[in-house]
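Shift notes (night). Ran TetR/AcrR family transcriptional regulator C-terminal domain-containing protein while the centrifuge was going.
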Amino acid sequence: MIRKTTPKELLAESLIDLAKIHPIQSITVTDITDNCQVSRQMFYYHFSSKYDLISWIYSDKADKIIEQYIEKEPWGRVAGRIVEFIKEDYIYFKKAFDDNTHLSFYNNIFNYTVECHTNYILKKTNRTSLPPDILFAIRFNAYGGVNVTKDWLENGMKESPEQLGELIFSAMPLPIKKYFHLDE
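Came back to this:
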């Protein structure tokens, strides 16, 4: 059932609903727009492709969580909140991870995580660039976090989202971990 109100949310909900019964690779823009009874022109006004929509679904929600909680809660708890929203639509996210095209969700979530962490550390340090060891640690952490989340989905989500968030944070490389502690 479609329940969102903005055009982007409507299109996102349509794709999520369709993914419950079809592989994401087989869902077309026409399928998405027909399902929520909007025009293809509306879709292309907001998104350049189905993969752009897939990226937006994750980044929009993650951005809102990070913005709301990053200065209020420890990073492990913030990460747990992100994992919680993935769990809420686990069928969709599991199928999104299954798509292995060059525009895949996996690549998009990895790049989003790298960009998010880089921008956060740049802001925290008041720098315009980061040294190679910090950039490497960010990429290493993003790779691990994305793969652990993918494995968690594929293997039955045995840990709670809160536990997984804390585990991801506890495994964060030391060169970047210090930036993700709340300022006392």
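The CA atoms of residues 125 and 179 lie 8 Å apart. Residues 132-154 form the longest helix (23 residues).
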